[in-house]
Each structure stands twice: as C-alpha cells, then as structure tokens.
Specification:
The protein is built from 17 helices and 12 strands. By secondary structure, it is α+β, with helices and mostly antiparallel strands. The chain folds into 2 domains: 121 residues, Uridine Diphospho-n-acetylenolpyruvylglucosamine Reductase, domain 2; 328 residues, Cytochrome p450, CATH 1.10.630.10. Strands 1-2-8-5-3 form a 5-stranded mixed sheet. β10 and β11 form a beta hairpin. The longest helix has 32 residues. The radius of gyration is 22 Å and the shape is globular. The structure holds protoporphyrin IX containing FE (HEM). Protoporphyrin IX containing FE binds next to α13 and α17.
Length: 454
C-alpha cells in the first residue's frame, strides 16, 4: 500500500450528506453553474456529493478532465436519465447510443463532418447569411438572438435537406425552444410522465412538429430518386455498414434529428454571445472589422479565408470560453472502478464535468471574467492554455462531431455580419444574464443596436 492510499480519505471533500442530497439537488436545479462554482471554491478540484442513490464526483482540473474523457473513456457511459430525456427527440442516434452501436455510428458519420467535407458547405452558409442580412432592419432594438436562431436554422436546413422554408423553420425553432425548456426540467425528475399525460401537451406537440419536419423531408427525398445534390441527407443515404447495408428508416430519422437539433441550437447560442461580446467591446469589434477589410477587401469570405483572420478567430474562441453553449457536459456514469486524482471511484459513480466553470478558472485564464481574445491570438505571446482547460466541444472520442461545421459557420456568419454592420448594446438595456437551458442562453432575448457600416 502506498503512503498516498494510507493518508488519503476514501471520499473527496464535499458538503455533508443530508436528506439524501435533496438540498443539493434543489440548489443545482435553481442555479446549476453557480452552485458547482461555489463547491469548487470551498472544496477544491475534486468534490463529492451524495445525490439520492448516486455518488456524484465533480472534477475541475484539466488534467483529470482529459484523464476521464480520453484515457478512461471506455469505462464511462452517459447518465441514463439525461439520455432518456434526449432519446425522446433524438431516438437512438449517435448522440444517444453507447458501446459498439455508438462506435459503429460514429465511424460511419465521422467522414461526413471532416474539414474538407465541411468546406463544401461554406458557399451555402454564405448565401444563407447574405440573404438574411439583406432582410435585416438596422435600428436601436434589433432582435439579435432570434435573427441568429433563424439564420442557423436556415443553414442547417439547407445543409441537411437542401431546403429553405422560413415558415417551417420558425415553427421548428419554437418546438426546439419548448423541448429545451421541458428537457432541462425533466432531468431533475427520476422519470418522465408518458407523453399522453394531459400536462405533456406542450412536449407532445413540439415532438410532433420536429418529427413531422424530419419525416416529411425524408419522404420528399425518397420521391426524388435523381437528386444530384451533396447535402448531409445525401451523405446519410449513401452510408453503408461493414456488411454493405444502408441505414434503416428509423436510424435515418434519428441521425437527421440529432444533426438538426445539435447543429443549430448551439451555433445560435454561440453567435448570440459573440454578438453581445462585440457590442460590449467596441475596440475588439473594430479590430475584427479592420482585419476583415485588410484580408478580404469587401469580398465575401470563403472557408479558406478563415485561418487568415486570426483576430476574428480569437474573438470566437474567447466567446466559447466565457459562454460555452454546452456549459455542462452530459454527466457520465463509470461502468468499472476508476483511479482518478488519488481516489478510487466505484463502478456506478456519477461524474460531472463542467466547462462553464473550468473555463473561468484564474489558474489558466488571467482575469477569467474579462473578454480578452488575445489569450487565443498566436501573435500575442500569451501563456499557453493547458489542454483540457478550454473544451467547449468536449474532448476524447465523444468530442462534438460537428465542431468543424460549427466553427466554419460561426466564422463565416461573423465575418459577413461585421462587413456590413456595427453592433452596439441596445440603449437602456442591462447586460444579458446567462441561464442554462440545455444550451447557455440569455434570460431575456438579446436585442442589440445594429448600424450599417459606413
Ligand atoms: C458552437 C457549436 C457547438 C458546440 C459548442 C457543441 C458542443 C458539443 C459538445 C460539448 C458535445 C459533447 C457532449 C458531451 O461530451 O457530453 C457535442 C456532441 C455532439 N455534437 Fe456538437 N456542438 C456544436 C455544434 C454542433 C453541430 C453544428 C453539429 C452537427 C452539425 C453537432 C453535432 C454533435 C453530435 C452529433 C454530437 C454527439 C457526438 C457523440 O456522442 O459521438 N454539434 N457537441
């Protein structure tokens, strides 16, 4: 036995267990990020909670985050309750599946989201953005968040189905909003009531809208055997498993739903916070606009231009640090005993990793609450950020499948927007307050002042 195991208590520090952890569950529900941040301040990098029948471990150090997500990946599954809630909309897609089924799905889908494949979507991202920008009315109270939601919805509908239907898109946006709010509440209940329960009307209708949208698009494509486009649905239709079989109808529906849902909500949240950060930091915004002028001279950007816009990229990375659209990764459950940070976690432990807190740690980010894009600017000579300290897309084998797609989309939209408009806070409105609703959104819909750039 080593000295370490002799002196280490068997459980990491944490609040005493009272009432099966009900007070802690209540605190998580009221203010998830605030509560966990307080725990880290009081107890350190590894914090233990007793929540009902779970031993709940929180890890806040980048090294342990990587140890878990990368090295210990095989010994983790996602928390069953969260997956149950997600499965109501996503079915058995790559986001929901575990084990060999997940590995098979991920291997099949991954090539379709590689940087080269994603580049092919850049022209349609640019076209969708130019069309949206042409319809915007500048003024002091522009509905920025709803414009970003509509635009990212438009981009995903065109990328996935080669479709552009704003009325359907708007209905779907409302349904996604309803599902996110309901989903967040349901996570804290041990089970969901059946969909036929009278108080489930909202969820039932929202799911029907989304399911109708996806199944309608699948039927439309089946009726177009000569379709020549290269959208994501076409990529899904061409997939074959090792035995040469295509995806079944339900599997197609499920993967489409996940790409649709995961593919626009998060990007809309990122662009919303990017808009706020630009509006609140006019010097950073001016520098980004000057860089765009110098590199593009007024022409529309392409995917190949994005690496030549280091300041714009640094601003986007800093936004994803301060306001990660997914500030809490899906909680994991260990399926085998794990040795992490000097503790033994028994099989069945709940593991919580929270980029929303890790990314605001002053040990890795000086003045962590401040918007300082230079931390990510290679030319600034800023201290290197440890791996695992910036993880808006997660890490390890289950890292976001759409990260290239998202960064290309956000970069192009940001560039086109700043070429035409200047952003400023709406007069008399307070700074937006972030709230966790599966994705991180302002408590009130963000409005900004939009001025045409001279
Ligand atoms: C700024 C935008 C985005 C952010 C911040 C984001 C974030 C994330 C994160 C953190 C995860 C991992 C969750 C976990 O480990 O618990 C994830 C998974 C995933 N994301 Fe994204 N995402 C974004 C955009 C997209 C887009 C555009 C797509 C598709 C077009 C997408 C598709 C997926 C899928 C399919 C998974 C599940 C992967 C798996 O389990 O193997 N995401 N995303």
């Amino acid at each position: 036995m080593t000295t370490d195991t002799l002196t280490r208590p068997t459980l990491p520090p944490g609040p005493p267990c009272r009432w099966l952890g009900l007070p802690e569950l209540g605190a998580l529900r009221r203010d998830y990020l605030g509560f966990l941040s307080g725990l880290q301040r009081r107890h350190g990098d590894i914090v233990h909670l007793r929540l009902m029948h779970y031993r709940d471990y929180n890890f806040f150090h980048p090294e342990q985050v990587r140890e878990l997500l990368v090295a210990a990946h095989e010994g983790l599954i996602r928390w069953e309750r969260a997956i149950e809630v997600f499965a109501a909309a996503h079915g058995q897609s790559v986001l929901v599946a575990e084990g060999p089924a997940w590995k098979r799905q991920r291997q099949m889908l991954q090539p379709g989201f590689a940087p080269k494949r994603v580049e092919a979507f850049a022209p349609l991202m640019v076209a969708a953005t130019e069309q949206a920008l042409a319809g915007w009315q500048s003024g002091p109270e522009f509905g920025f968040e709803s414009a970003m939601t509509q635009l990212t919805m438009e981009v995903i509908l065109r990328s996935l189905f080669s479709r552009s239907d704003t009325a359907e898109g708007r209905r779907a946006a409302d349904a996604v909003h309803a599902i996110s709010l309901i989903g967040m509440q349901e996570m804290f209940w041990p089970a969901s009531a059946p969909l036929w329960a009278p108080w489930k009307t909202g969820k039932r209708r929202a799911l029907q809208t989304l399911d109708g949208l996806i199944r309608g698009e699948l039927a439309r494509r089946r009726a177009m055997p000569d379709f020549q486009g290269e959208d994501l649905l076409q990529m899904l239709l061409q997939l074959r498993d090792p035995q040469g079989r295509p995806l079944g109808e339900q599997a197609l529906r499920d993967e489409c739903m996940t790409i649709f849902l995961a593919g626009h909500e998060t990007s809309a949240a990122a662009l919303t916070w990017w808009g706020w950060c630009m509006a609140a930091h006019p010097e950073a915004q001016r520098r980004a606009a000057d860089e765009l002028h110098a590199v593009l001279g007024g022409r529309a950007p392409s995917a190949a231009d994005l690496p030549r816009l280091p300041w714009l990229q640094a601003c986007i990375k800093e936004v994803l640090r301060l306001y990660p659209p997914a500030p809490a990764l899906l909680s994991r459950i260990s399926t085998v005993p794990l040795q992490i940070g000097g503790y033994t976690l028994p099989a069945g432990s709940m593991i919580r990793l929270t980029p929303g807190i890790i990314q605001r740690d002053p040990r890795w980010f000086e003045e962590p609450e401040a918007f300082r894009p230079e931390r990510f600017d290679p030319a600034s000579g800023h201290a290197e950020i440890p791996r695992g300290a910036w993880l808006p897309f997660g890490a390890g084998p289950r890292v976001c499948l759409g990260s290239h797609f998202a960064l290309t989309e956000i970069g192009l939209i940001a560039a086109l927007l700043l070429q035409r408009y200047e952003l400023a806070p709406a007069p008399g409105r307070p700074a937006p307050i972030p709230a966790l609703r599966i994705t991180l959104r302002p408590t009130e819909p963000l409005r900004l002042t939009l001025r045409p750039r001279g």
